[in-house]
Amino acid sequence: MRISSSLVFQTGLNTINAQQSDLMHLYQQIGSGQRMVTPADDPLAAAQAINLSQSQAQNARYASNRAVANQNLGVEEDALNSLTLLLQDVRTRLVEAGNGTMSDADRQTLAGVLQNARNTALGIANTTDGNGQYVFSGSLGSVPAFAQDGTYNGDTLQRNIQADATRQIAGSDIGSDIFQRAQPGTLAYTSAAGAANTGTAIVSGPYIADRSAPPAGNPDARYSYAVTFTATGYDVTVTDNSTTPPTVGAPVSHPPLAADATEMDLGNGTKVQISGSPAAGDTFTVEPLKTQNANIFQTLDTLVAALNAPSQGDAQSTAALRNVLNTGMQQLASSYDNVLTVRASIGARMNELQSLDDSGSQRGLGFTKALSGLEDLDYYQATTQLSLRKIALEGAGLAFQTIQGLSLFNLGGK
């Protein structure tokens, strides 16, 4: 085969270019610290690296979401902690208000204290987070949760945050579930006296004395009781709220209470404490708290109005005030327990976020290690290859220099 001079030159040039290209590739690898300068270096590893990078970015996004959720829950916890302390103080004040030695002026001063507490509670209900969003408005973060009259303006949709691939966590709670609801699952009752009562009877402390009394198969029936005093005793009307619509029973007549009676048996194992002397036509109701709209603001408004009304020296007015105070204390006790329940839920969610953070950090380390194995350069191997390529390039240059100096004329001259 005839080898032309141009073929010799072209072959030598191609060899030098190839060695230079390999050397440049090694320079790029060492300079970037990456084993794959282009996907062509290792197509399978490049595809795996893309998948791992996407998973790592998603894991980082979840971590950011958890940080936001944790911050929002922290704001809510601070607000509900303030509300808890406020309700504790209000309940203490209500015990003071029941002191028979207080004058009307004292009670009016106490009414001012409760009015300030009510305004503070409204401010807590309209708490905003760091972005100016109202915490307790549901999904309507730009709308104040409660109006001045205590009406809820938000919706019932929680702001769920994607904390992990398969887990969404509520970053806040709905205001109506905190400020307008009794404790979920409560079996407590509340008593209330009719506004038109003319006697001096005071009812308080309703409770279920015998939980086996309700009919078999319906032990959790939610009974309400309406009591009307008559000239010959009193009538009790029982309503079963567990049916739709509620089932209202016929009034059951009872003889007058004994002079020394301290409680009334309303049926179905439910009793209520009573003192004083009821007048004919007086009414009382005893209802389960879970069937009521336990609005903290309306309860405080009612208490303020009752404390501002004169009652000193008037047995009837004093009895009416005591009944309002008893009802208010029963409702606020349930509201207080409900706030504690929500705070416990917040704590559980924050603990879950911490657990997800821990597992997310471990997962992130795994992604980083896997990516390192695919992308990072082995500097020992690369520097060795660099030395070899430099020697090969120098050899290719010397070989080309030697070959290009040979010709028939040179051979003939020798």
Q: What can be said about this structure in brief?
A:
The chain has 414 residues and is of the alpha+beta class.
Short key terms for the protein model shown above:
rod-shaped; f41 fragment of flagellin, N-terminal domain; 3-stranded antiparallel sheet; 2 domains; 414 residues
Helix-strand layout with pairing:
Blueprint: H1 5-32, H2 43-97, H3 104-125, E1 160-164, E2 167-170, H4 176-179, E3 189-193, E4 202-208, E5 223-230, E6 233-240, E7 247-248, E8 252-254, E9 263-267, E10 270-275, E11 283-288, H5 296-308, H6 315-375, H7 379-404, H8 408-413
Antiparallel strand pairs: 1-2, 3-11, 4-10, 5-6, 5-11, 6-7, 6-8, 9-10
Helix pairs in contact: 1-7, 2-3, 2-6, 3-5, 5-6
Describe this structure in words.
This protein is of the alpha+beta class. Helix content is about 50%, strand content about 15%. It contains eight helices and eleven strands. The strands form three sheets. Strands 3, 5, 6, 7, 8 and 11 form a six-stranded antiparallel β-sheet that branches. A three-stranded antiparallel β-sheet has the order 4-10-9. A two-stranded antiparallel ribbon has the order 1-2. The longest helix has about 60 residues, at about 315-375. It is rod-shaped, with a radius of gyration of 41 Å.
Number of strands: 11
The helix-strand sequence is: HHHEEHEEEEEEEEEHHHH
Strand content: 5-15%
Number of domains: 2
Largest sheet: 6 strands, antiparallel
Indicate the mean pLDDT. 83
CATH architecture of the largest domain: Up-down Bundle
**Count of individual helical segments:** 8
**Gyration radius, in Å:** 41 Å
| Helix proportion | 40-55%
- Tell the overall outline: rod-shaped
Structural class: alpha+beta
